Q: What sequence folds into this?
């Protein structure tokens, strides 16, 4: 964040300033977490579902906060200036919108049911080859995360690449009003957060809010192979570009080749490649090419950006744990991303068994049983040698798998994580492929941690044995 005075902040968000020297005190950063406050920062007290930042104002001041933004009914005394507002979360949105317009970067927004973060990272990797690019950190894509992302923009940044998430109709519209994107990307529309959206129609309505928010001079980049995403074009008042493999796309991939950890394809005769697992990365790559072209980037420069791309932790990330090939896809799960995980198993060419470890897909509402049963159908068709399932929907997954011919002795329903790990320990052999996936709330990363622990334990035993042999 560029340096601003408290007087500028007060002007941007309104409210009442309490304290002296508001026109002299400056800050170039803010924090909503009292534990991470650095000297010179503004502490923004947010009242959340579990914690109320107002309880930690004194701690933030002790850590060096030069000012505090708090709700107007806050009674705590402060040794630093306080700006009191009606509601701090709304004030944060207002401030970030003001700040975005004061620095005026070119803003690109991405949304979709799957692939938002990968697309954001891949587009940023490409643009960074030629432009100063800032992107949303981690998964900062909601009503608090997006404003914080905007406040990371510095004066030298040319482009801001932002992720917009939602679980209700109207949320993306609100985020787009704050960020004012000039290019909007929609990756694919699936059934993620179906429980909170209420219907598939509401999901489509929500994702289209980004398209509707684009100015007439903007560009909407849409997955042309996905009919629901393609349908959003009729809601655009700006230029629309479709990407995909079908002939009616503006950016069309041909000669697509998928190997274990390598994706290769051509666009208008130029051969691109990415070191990633899974064909589903193709949409993100095509979106990056479409954006790069809009900024006048050569195909060779775009490929350089692809070369710099690294898989994101917990998102289809290949890890070699001893002799095991582990696909860490534990960050989240929905029916579309589960389908992609099943496709990964089909392309594996290793010598060992294919093991799939699945946790519940959450937030699917009344359709949860059906989607988990269908997941079992897909797993049965994916060359999986053994399936481990954890969660309330485990029976549905296994029932679907068995209905499609999956052998009963090749599936294990687990009552707890410990029970799953015990059974996994009995099944694992050298050179196995292990795909781990589930919704965030299932904490499936515990399987990844356990695998590393098992390998470290094995290495320690080997080292002790070798040292003992030398002593003889």
A:
């Amino acid at each position: 964040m560029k340096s601003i005075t408290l007087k500028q902040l007060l002007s941007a968000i309104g409210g009442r300033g309490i304290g002296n020297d508001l026109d002299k005190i400056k800050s170039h950063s803010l924090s909503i977490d009292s534990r991470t406050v650095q000297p010179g920062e503004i502490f923004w007290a947010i009242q959340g579902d579990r914690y109320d930042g107002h309880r930690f104002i004194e701690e933030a001041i002790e850590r060096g906060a030069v000012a505090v933004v708090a709700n107007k009914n806050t009674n705590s005394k402060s040794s630093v200036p306080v700006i009191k507002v009606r509601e701090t979360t709304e004030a944060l949105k207002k401030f970030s919108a003001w700040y975005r317009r004061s620095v005026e970067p070119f803003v690109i927004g991405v949304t979709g049911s799957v692939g938002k973060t990968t697309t954001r990272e891949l587009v940023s990797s490409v643009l960074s080859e030629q432009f100063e690019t800032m992107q949303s950190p981690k998964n900062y894509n909601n009503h608090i995360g997006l404003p914080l992302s905007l406040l990371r923009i510095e004066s030298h940044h040319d482009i801001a690449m932002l992720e917009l998430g939602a679980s209700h109709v109207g949320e993306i519209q609100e985020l787009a009003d704050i960020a004012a994107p000039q290019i909007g990307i929609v990756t694919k529309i699936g059934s993620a957060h179906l429980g909170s959206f209420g219907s598939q129609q509401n999901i489509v309505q929500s994702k289209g809010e980004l398209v509707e928010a684009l100015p007439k001079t903007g560009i909407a980049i849409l997955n042309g192979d996905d009919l629901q995403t393609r349908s959003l074009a009729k809601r655009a008042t700006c230029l629309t570009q479709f990407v995909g493999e079908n002939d009616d796309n503006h950016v069309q991939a041909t000669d697509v080749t998928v190997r274990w950890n390598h994706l290769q394809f051509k666009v208008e005769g130029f051969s691109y490649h990415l070191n990633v697992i899974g064909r589903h990365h193709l949409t993100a790559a095509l979106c990056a090419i479409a954006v790069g072209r809009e900024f006048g980037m050569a195909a060779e420069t775009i490929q350089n950006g692809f070369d710099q791309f690294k898989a994101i932790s917990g998102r289809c990330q290949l890890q070699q744990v001893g002799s095991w090939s582990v696909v860490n896809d534990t960050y989240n799960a929905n029916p579309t991303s589960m389908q992609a995980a099943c496709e990964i198993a089909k392309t594996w060419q290793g010598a060992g068994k294919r093991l799939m470890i699945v946790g519940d897909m959450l937030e699917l509402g009344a359709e949860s049983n059906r989607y988990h049963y269908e997941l079992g159908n897909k797993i049965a068709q994916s060359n999986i040698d053994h399936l481990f399932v954890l969660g309330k929907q485990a029976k549905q997954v296994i029932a679907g798998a068995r209905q499609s011919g999956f052998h009963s002795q090749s599936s294990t329903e687990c009552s707890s994580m410990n029970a799953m790990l015990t059974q996994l320990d009995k099944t694992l052999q050298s050179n196995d492929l292990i795909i781990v996936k589930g919704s965030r709330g299932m904490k499936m990363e515990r399987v990844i941690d356990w695998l590393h622990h098992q390998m470290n334990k094995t290495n320690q035993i080997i080292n002790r044995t070798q040292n003992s042999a030398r002593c003889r």
Notes: Residues 225 and 244 are 5 Å apart (CA to CA). Residues 104-308 form a domain with the UDP-N-acetylmuramoyl-L-alanine:D-glutamate ligase fold (CATH 3.40.1190.10). The first strand starts at residue 4 and ends at 5. The radius of gyration is 25 Å.
